[in-house]
Amino acid sequence: MKSAEVRKKYLEFFKKRGHAVIPSAPLLPENDPTTLFTSSGMQPLIPYLLGQPHPSGKRLVDSQKSFRSQDIEEVGDNRHTTFFEMLGNWSLGDYFKKEQLPWIFEFLTRELGLDPKRLYVTVFEGNASVPKDTESIDIWKDIFSGVGIVAKENERIFAYPARKNWWSRSGEPDTMPPGEPGGPDSEVFFDFGTPHYPQFGETCHPNCDCGRFMEIANSVFMQYQKMPDGTLKELKQKNVDFGGGLERLVAATEGKQDVFETDLFSEIIQSIQLASGLAYVNDEHKKTLRIIADHVKAAVFLIADGIEPSNKMQGYVLRRLLRRAAVKLKLMSKSSTEHQFAPIVQSVLRTYKETDYFNNTKEESIKNSVALEMFKFTKSLDQGLREIQKITSIDGKIAFDLYQTYGFPLEITEEIFREKGQRIDHQQFASEFEKHQDLSRSAAKGMFKGGLADKSEQTVKLHTAHHLLLAALQKIVDQDIKQRGSNITAERLRMDFNYAKKLMPEDVQKIEKLVNEKIFEDIPVVRQEMEREAAEKIGAQMEFGHKYPDRVSVYFIGPEKNFFSAEFCGGPHVAHTGLLGRFQIIKEESAGSGVRRIYAVLS
Ligand code: SER
Which of the residues 63, 454, 482, 544 could staple to 440 if both were Cys, CB 3.0 to 4.6 A apart? Predict the structure, then answer.
């Protein structure tokens, strides 16, 4: 069964049972500073599980985009992914075990058509403060007997400790922080019927890692809250929090042990096969193809939710995904990676064409973000890999140099050396990192009396480059060009301007050349306060549609009487253009009727 059908059937099944369908929350959590990503369906619903009334009622159902960065090391096998969709239904203090477990069984067997004989279930075995979940055991026995199966403990129903059958965002009861909700859970596993391998243990059971069983459904009975004194208190309302990974459910319906062979991945794997020349055949190739497919897909979803590659927080995780994919592809296919990612990104977008996760306007900016990151990284990738191959012994300082010079995240360098049997001292890496931050902080202070923090240094440079670019556009293409929008991050600048046609390639070259000449001339950038009328008279550039006060601040590049650029602007800017480095236009495209858009970087 195709993924779109499974998703639809699930939402309709619970809609018929009184659930309101709610949209997926973004991957970047809203109003939750405790975590970087939305990693489960229940996460955006915490306040409601704790008792706040939900505007859509007490029964909810959705398909939630989820990202688990902690699973990055596991990706490469048949079932782990960092990004996945979690089908979820919730009872906010409404129904409980005796409705939830039969419904899930009905959904799996009647709607998805899974053979009941291939389903095995697990429950919580109990601990000092929470009793064994005998209620769920009894319910499961009834359910199975309804389809003619005698379900015995340790044959069809298995009890496990909290490590396996307790769910909270932070794991077992002992590791839950005060205030955190959680509870025992009951999981359903699908049996692929493959042979057990003794290296995974004497006997096989649902939580065995041999690959025979795959968890496809998890009903959490969210009924406890951790107290400041370390005890668990019953919540006022007993909730159900169900999660089932869409990728795994589709795999089970198709009897495929490998989620990467379902329609949620097949096109993506195909496009990577084309890009790399690798076939999806042996374990080594499959692992590489799965990692690249997972990482590019996750990156596309993260970018669609507003994250840009950077060296901080979510942006760093995104950068790591893209760069790891680039290194893997490079190492396996030995070819250049810069342009190889566009068709892979396209295949991700095509895979989700029946959803509303990406709309047309987002597609372009997703492609651009990936292209820009790859452009920056590919430049140093070959060189960095050559350096790595030469190194015979690595320490934290060398790993830091590789990060600093070639942009290789620590984890990637480590992964390449792990294959050579080497380990990196993380502490040494961290102390080199700190030393560098101190140096660049003091350098920044010396250079910019305005007190810029080092973190905005690159953005400030790109801001000044933005002024040079506008002036160059007017001088080379058309003096009537005006800025229509702008967006500057530490990674790149984006400028929209009025112009009806695509720029000629030779004009793009001329613009780059002129901006680079002005950088080479190392011209002072000077701020002047002046009357608005006087600034208008000398032709200082204004932002389109912006209202200015009577007295304005104007930034001049070049002498006031014979400037190269003058713009109404509040700053900040570098002190002189020589600080900028080399300017390069990465892309020129349409941004709507009569408006063009340029992306440019400094290197
Ligand atoms: N919160 C549980 C999970 O993520 C069920 O939704 O598995």
Answer: 454
Residue 220 alpha carbon to ligand 1 centre in Å: 7
Nearest-angstrom CA–CA distance, 587 and 496 = 12
Q: Which residues contact 544 (CB under 8 A, 6 or more apart)?
A: 482, 483, 484
Q: How far is the CA of 275 from the centre of ligand 1 (A)?
A: 35
**Last residue of a domain, which of 243, 259, 275?**
259
Q: Domain holding 49: CATH number?
A: 3.30.930.10
Does 207 lie in the same domain as 61? yes
Band of residue 393 on the pLDDT scale cut at 50, 70, 90? confident
Residue 466's nearest CA partner among 552, 531, 555, 532 is 555
Which residues does a 6 A CB cutoff place in the pocket of ligand 1?
40-42, 88, 167, 218, 220, 241-243
Number of structural domains the chain divides into: 3
Residues 297 and 419 reside in one and the same domain: yes
Q: What's the angle, vertex CA 84, arms to CA 82 and CA 88, rounded to 5?
A: 135
Domain that holds residue 182: 3-259
Domain identity same for 546 and 464: yes
Q: What is the pLDDT of residues 69-121, one digit of tens each?
A: 877 878 999 999 999 999 999 999 999 999 999 999 999 999 999 999 999 99
Please give the number of the atom of ligand 1 that sits closest to the Cα of 243.
6
Q: Give the domain CATH number at 461.
A: 3.30.980.10
Do 424 and 545 lie in a common domain?
A: no
Ligand 1 atom closest to Cα of 40? 4
Q: Provide the whole-model pTM.
A: 0.71
CA-nearest residue, atom 6 of ligand 1: 243
The candidate with the shortest Cα–Cα distance to 271, out of 246, 297, 251, is 297
Which residue puts its alpha carbon closest to atom 4 of ligand 1?
40
- What CA–CA distance (Å, rounded) separates 534 from 541? 12
441 and 460 fall within a common domain: no
Candidate from 22, 39, 185, 186 with most ligand 1 atoms within 8 A of CB, to mutate: 185
CA distance 237 to 523: 67
Which of 202, 237, 259 is the last residue in one of the domains?
A: 259
pLDDT tens digits along 511-556: 999 999 999 888 888 888 788 888 989 999 987 666 677 777 899 9
Report how far ligand 1's centroid is from the alpha carbon of 243 (Å).
4
Do the beta carbons of residue 280 and residue 289 sit within 8 Å? yes
